[in-house]
Amino acid sequence: MRFKSENGSITLEAALVLPFFMLFIVFMASIIRISVAEIALNKSVSETAQILSTHAYPITILSNQIENLASDKLSGISTDIISLEDVEKVVGTSLKEFLDFDPSSSNYFDELGTSVLTPIVQEKFAKNMNSNSVTESSLNVEVELPRSINGGTDSYIGITASYDLDLTVPFVDRTITIKKQAYERLWIGGY
């Protein structure tokens, strides 16, 4: 009687199946990593937009009060008492340059908003990712501020953030860009 030898058959089957199984595990880990980054970015952008929209009304009231106080103080000063040259010496810049500045013709406020909000979004993103490895170069934030916060059709704040995520899959050297946007209507009192 002749017996068939089955020595090594499990090793052969494992050698055929194990690479596909490992590739599947790595692929699933990458999908989970992408999903976590997408959820964290969405949450960070949404929270920042909500916080900013709720704090716009007190800032509007404060800026209106400061503007009224400044105009009241300046209305009592006559040009005989103080000259524009004296004011330019104190301010350190030409008033003509200041008065010629037109913020509506440039992206000055959007750039200012971006520079202020980028660290906030980065901090929230790192907290939501449970990681401190978020670099400034991999997370880009853009802010669209309304031109007028006195109520109107454009009283929305928009925050757009994009995150560059490197894939860690074997034989693949790619970077995925995840982009999320959040728009919130400013809370501006009775408007």
From TrEMBL:
Residues 8-49 form the TadE-like domain. It comes from Oceanobacillus polygoni. The chain crosses the membrane at residues 12-32. InterPro entries: TadE-like_dom. This is TadE-like domain-containing protein. The keyword Transmembrane applies. Keywords: Membrane, Transmembrane, Transmembrane helix. Pfam families: TadE (PF07811). The keyword Membrane applies.
